[in-house]
Specification:
The chain has five helices and eight strands.
Length: 211
């Protein structure tokens, strides 16, 4: 009759097993460290954030209502700008990307002003910010185009803006013909305006831009 030796209770691993486990642990730790280094290199070498064209149901349709008393105390209405291309830019003083794009907006607005009645115009909308901070932002940057507060976020809701900066181009007939989300560059503003003047809709919509 066969007999079986009783199983021995688990004891400490043999020296060879312990060395094998330490070897695997060192490789695992080294692998994690390597991954972290690669991630750090990618983050450090990634290009700065830029605006991207986004699909918007507004493109190809009349721009939502936009008006009110500007930070300088004047009345503004987007409908009063018919006959001109108008960039509508949503911003906030606490938004680092808005600060990043402001020099481009300044440069673009200045160059367009030299074209007189043929140049594109600009209006900014305050997004989820205090009036005092918005005033300070406008003063610090010397913004000369209309800046409209958006108490309660009604304008942002109509335009579908979830976070700044976001920019829309409205053509002379009052239709949205293109959108950007993120900090825009002068080149991007120029490209969108040029495309719109060719009658193209950019980043969504169907048909002709018109105007």
């Amino acid at each position: 009759m066969s007999t079986f030796a009783p199983l021995r209770p688990d004891g400490p691993p043999a020296p060879a097993a312990r060395r094998s486990r330490r070897h695997v642990a060192r490789w695992a730790a080294g692998g994690v460290a390597l991954v972290l280094v690669v991630v750090a290199i990618v983050a450090a070498t990634r290009p700065p954030q830029q605006a991207t064209q986004v699909e918007s149901p507004l493109v190809g349709h009349p721009a939502p209502a936009l008006g009110g008393t500007t930070l300088s105390g004047r009345r503004f209405s987007l409908t009063s700008e018919r006959g001109h291309y108008v960039y509508v830019n949503f911003f906030a003083s606490w938004c680092s990307s808005c600060v990043e794009e402001e020099p481009a907006l300044q440069d673009f607005a200045f160059r367009q002003s030299r074209d007189g009645s043929h140049g594109a115009r600009m209006v900014s909308v305050v997004f989820n910010d205090t009036l005092s901070d918005a005033h300070r932002f406008v003063s610090d940057w010397g913004i000369r185009w209309p800046v409209v507060p958006d108490s309660g976020g009604a304008i942002a809701n109509r335009y579908g803006v979830g976070s700044p900066p976001m920019t829309f181009l409205v053509n002379p007939t009052g239709s949205v013909v293109g959108t950007w989300i993120g900090p825009v560059t002068v080149e991007q503003l120029d490209q969108l305006l040029t495309a719109a003047r060719r009658g193209e809709l950019v980043s969504g919509g169907t048909g002709s831009a018109g105007g």
